[in-house]
Amino acid sequence: MAENNNLMQALQTLIQSETSQINTAVDGIIESYDAGIASVKPIPKQRFVDGTSLDYPVIPNVPVMWPRFAGDVAGVKGPVRSGDKCLLVFCQQAADDSDDERRFSLTDAYCIVGGFGAAKDRAAENDQMQLYFGEAYIALTEEGKLLINAPAGVEITTPETLNKGLLTTEGQLSYQSGMSGKGGATINGTVKATGDVQGSGISLTQHTHQEHDGPSTGPAK
């Protein structure tokens, strides 16, 4: 019976020793990032059967993964900075197909960036879906309203913009390449123009009036 116990203990120790070399997923911290490749320091320690532990080394050349769709022409990404948290996932085989025997190696890691938890300073906005960066954000409300807050401004590059609803601006409206439209216009306030104003082809500055039983007036000065 003692021999059986010793054999079982030896087998258990062997299995634990082997499985301790299997890397699956650990939390990490970005040490550096460049063009989609990061160096990552795993946060926990490696723990061994004999009770000892050892810091993981910094893992270089780790591809950073982002959600991508539609044959990689659509996706979501964010800015990556040193100190950002991430999840390291280790492949069950060599990621570059260079070694058929390699399994769950530290060299075959992928990095999923993102610190998970409560969104800082945004816990009260529980009725919105937000994409934010600092004070700037785009939000969708439960009622279907789109909210945009851009402290540094909004820049749109597009050949054409179509608005199918009422457009209201609380600030000054300015343009650089002229303005045209259909329908009437109602303005409550003074209209000023540095150039001429025409109505039905008649110039405001050049037109004349025929005075009753008198001569025509000259153009406006």
Task: Give a written overview of the molecule.
The chain has 221 residues and is mainly beta. Among the domains are: 23-113, OB fold (Dihydrolipoamide Acetyltransferase, E2P) (Beta Barrel), CATH 2.40.50; 122-155, no CATH class. Helices cover 8% and strands 29% of the residues. The strands form five sheets. The protein has a five-stranded mixed beta barrel with strand order 1-2-5-9-8. Strands 10-11-12 form a three-stranded antiparallel beta sheet, with no helix packed on it. The protein is rod-shaped and about 135 Å long. Pfam families: Gp138_N. It comes from Pragia fontium.
Mean pLDDT, as a whole number?
A: 82
Q: How many separate helices?
A: 1
**What is the CA-atom radius of gyration, in angstroms?**
34 Å
Percent of residues in helices comes to under 10%
pLDDT < 50 stretches: none
Query: What shape does the CA trace take?
Result: rod-shaped
Please identify, by name, the CATH architecture of the domain at 23-113: Beta Barrel
Strand order in the sheet with the most strands: 1-2-5-9-8
* Fourth-level CATH superfamily of the domain at 23-113: Gp5 N-terminal domain
DSSP strand count: 14
Secondary-structure element order, as H and E? HEEEEEEEEEEEEEE
CATH top level assignment of the domain at 23-113: Mainly Beta
The major β-sheet equals: 5 strands, mixed, barrel
CATH topology name of the domain at 23-113 = OB fold (Dihydrolipoamide Acetyltransferase, E2P)
- Briefly note the structural class of the backbone: mainly beta
